Amino acid sequence: MPSIYQTNRFSFSLGIGMALFASPLLAFDNDYEINDINLNEENFLDIKAHRFRKSLEYQWYDNVSAWRITGASLDGDLAFVQNELKLQSELSDYLNVRLEMQQEVFYASKPVPLPTAEVEIYPWAGNLGFSLLGTPAYEKSDMDLGFALIWGRRPWNYTRLEYLNVDAYYNQKNAADNTFYRKAPSNIKLEGYYEFAGHYKLRYTLQRERPLERVDPDRNALFTQKGDNYFLQFDYLPVADTVYGASLSGFSLDKTSSQSGQDLQQATDYISADIYWVKGMGKRYEFRLGSQYDYIKNNIRDYISSTNNLNYFMTTLQIYGTVYHPFNEHMGWDLGLHIGDVEERQTYLQDSSRNTVNDSIEAKLRMGFVYTSADGNSTLQFNLSINADDPINDPGDGGGISFQSVF
């Protein structure tokens, strides 16, 4: 079988060089579909425009209990969704109980993940600890079980090595059908958050996932998946309200789906690199200037109907600027301008008449209204976007709502 995993592994190679090894940020997400990715040319501008500003990001990472959610338009039918929840209760110096859930969707529909519950134990009430974790589920076949070794304590200056057995009881307790794992999914995650010398912040999450193979004997079907995902961020704060920083994130995902009448293979790569300068956090005006590069590739091979063999990729190099200004105790405005050079190509290997090429300059003006609680711990934002590259013929470019609360 010809391999598409070896073609244009730009994102995986760069991830290796920057992050030591690349691996999935989350475990298998229960998506058993081959995803036909076809984004709109301004989508990476959309995603960047609706992310949380830097001061809110720091507020999120400085607290052990918080919730945030974003829903923003990508086109008439699809949305960018970011949803995260983390709760921690410290029973004593020896014991913490935690609950976490995380989802980010922009390139394909994904099932909502189950939350992960965790008990952290520090036997000597110091920095060395371990934890037991799992995902509670009505059907025991959907439960994940694992453990972690920990040095340090959240929110900063800790390292954590975690092992998770995904769908730990699937083969023993799956009563819904006759499917089973020939190779069960599991993963190892290394995570660290550090502040040092009073001026530097480093965050990384690296995870290695074991490839899975799920067999459905009733349909003579086999589904396989392996993936890599990484995140690395480094910030320098010369003074408390100013940041010079860079981040790198991405994933590689390989899938196959074989059954009667279907034999498909998919290889997806994504990388995002961001360089930025932020000034005025906690002041009357918070400015951010930066440049971000996004690249996504999705190659599909159909070994039954070769006319559907497709190489797809889209790149966006954007420059952006944002400004946030609170004008009273509760309210503020937040503006952003994003300009990107976009290249998008669909190449059908057996039918060139279906090929498409899009090479364009995209621009977006985002206007946001912000409402904040009196204590500053909760923020609600409404965004409206204008298509700045064609404001007369196509002025509307969607909008979004986001909310964040720390407690």
Extended strand count = 20
Number of helices: 4
* Rg for CA atoms: 22 Å
Q: Which word captures the global form?
A: globular
- Poorly predicted runs of 5 or more residues: 1-25
Which bin fits the share of residues in helices? under 10%
Overall pLDDT confidence: 91
Percent of sequence in beta strands? over 45%
Largest sheet: 18 strands, antiparallel, barrel
Q: Termini distance?
A: 53 Å
SSE string: HHHEEEEEEEHEEEEEEEEEEEEE
The computed structural class is: mainly beta
Describe it for me?
The protein is mainly β and 407 residues long. The protein is built from four helices and 20 strands. It has helices at residues 10-19, 43-49, 54-61, 170-173, and strands at residues 66-73, 79-92, 95-105, 116-121, 128-134, 145-152, 158-165, 180-183, 186-196, 200-209, 212-216, 221-236, 242-259, 262-279, 286-302, 310-326, 331-348, 356-372, 378-387, 396-406. Strand 13 (242-259) and strand 14 (262-279) form a beta hairpin. The radius of gyration is 22 Å and the shape is globular.
Describe the structure in brief:
This protein is mostly beta strands. The protein has helices at 10-19, 43-49, 54-61, 170-173, and strands at 66-73, 79-92, 95-105, 116-121, 128-134, 145-152, 158-165, 180-183, 186-196, 200-209, 212-216, 221-236, 242-259, 262-279, 286-302, 310-326, 331-348, 356-372, 378-387, 396-406. It is globular and about 65 Å long.
Write the layout of secondary structure elements.
Layout (H helix, E strand, L loop, with lengths): L9 H10 L23 H7 L4 H8 L4 E8 L5 E14 L2 E11 L10 E6 L6 E7 L10 E8 L5 E8 L4 H4 L6 E4 L2 E11 L3 E10 L2 E5 L4 E16 L5 E18 L2 E18 L6 E17 L7 E17 L4 E18 L7 E17 L5 E10 L8 E11 L1
Antiparallel strand pairs: 1-2, 1-20, 2-3, 3-4, 4-5, 5-6, 6-7, 7-9, 8-11, 9-10, 10-12, 11-12, 12-13, 13-14, 14-15, 15-16, 16-17, 17-18, 18-19, 19-20
